[in-house]
Amino acid sequence: MTITRFETGPRMSQAVVHNGTAYLAGQVADNVSNDEGVEAQTKDILAQIDALLGSVGSDKTRLLSATIYLADMSTFAEMNRAWDGWVAAGHTPARATVEAKLAGPQYKVEISIIAAIGA
Q1: What CDD domains does the record point to (predicted)?
Q2: What sign results for the dihedral spanned by CA atoms 99, 102, 108, 114?
Q3: Burial (0-12, 13-18, 19+ Cβ within 10 Å), 111
Q4: In a 3-state reduction of DSSP, which class is residue 76?
Q5: 5 half-sphere exposure, CB direction, 13 A CA radius
Q6: What is the bridge-based pairing of β-strands 21-24 and 63-70?
Q7: DSSP characters for 54-68?
Q8: Pair type for strands 94-99 and 63-70
Q9: Is pTM beyond 0.85 here?
Q10: Hey, how many other C-beta atoms are within 10 angstroms of the C-beta on 104?
Q11: Please, what is the Cα angle at 61 between 86 and 38, to 5 degrees?
Q12: I need a labelling partner for 34 at 20 to 30 A (CA). Which of 18, 42, 79, 112 fits?
């Protein structure tokens, strides 16, 4: 069985495809500033996820699982405003949301996705 890696670096790949399933690395916002809120960071991340899913032959209607990490669980509703506006109705994945210390203080959200490939 073939394993295909996308946007591979020395430490990790942004996506790995194996056996009809895409595994996306945890995504954080590209555009972060001290005053950027969780909703804005979430929208930025979801746009990245759309692009990554497209590059591997999938899309948000093929989501299987999502894990969302919040630096502060009190921002759960703010993150969900962005998520609810993005996720495809009738195609919601299994999902977990947890509070975690992220890689840097500028990051307020990180999202990891598993999705099916193809039709």
Answers
A1: YjgF_YER057c_UK114_like_2 (cd06150)
A2: negative
A3: buried
A4: helix
A5: 9
A6: unpaired
A7: HHTT--GGGEEEEEE
A8: parallel
A9: yes
A10: 9
A11: 25
A12: 112
pLDDT of residue 59: 97
Tokens standing for residue 52: 């990554």
Hey, what are 70's tokens?
A: 């919040």
Pairing mode, if any, of strands 63-70 and 109-116? antiparallel
Go through the chain and tell me how many residues it has: 119
Q: Give the model's pLDDT for residue 1.
A: 78
Report how far apart, in Å, the C-alpha atoms of 90 and of each of 45, 60, 97, 117 are. Answer: 21, 11, 20, 18
- Low-confidence stretches of the chain (pLDDT < 70) are 34, 119
Phi-psi region of 19 (alpha: psi -120 to 50; beta: other; left: phi over 0): left
Residue 74 DSSP label: G
